[in-house]
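RECORD TYPE: protein structure
NAME: Sm protein G
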Amino acid sequence: MAQSKKKGDIDLVKFLDKRVRIKLNAQRQIEGVLRGSDHMMNLALEHAFDITEKDERKEIGSMILRGAAIVWIEAIDRL
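PREDICTED:
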C-alpha cells in the first residue's frame, strides 16, 4: 500500500546534505548538515553547532534531534 502525503507533511529530501538552521522549543537553535530523517521527523545532523542568544556558536558535532522538539527548519545552503 502506498503512503499518501497528508496536508502539512514536510518533504525533507530537498534539505538532505544541505546546511540547515533548526529552531527548537525552549528558544534553542541548531545549525548543521542534514544527513537523514525518519517518519517522526527525527533528524540526523553532522557538523552541528548550538547557536546561542548572542549568536555565539558552540560546536556539537554529530547529533540526533527529536522531531517533537522541532519548531521550524530553514535552509542556509541554496536548495
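COMMENT: The two ends are 31 Å apart (CA to CA).
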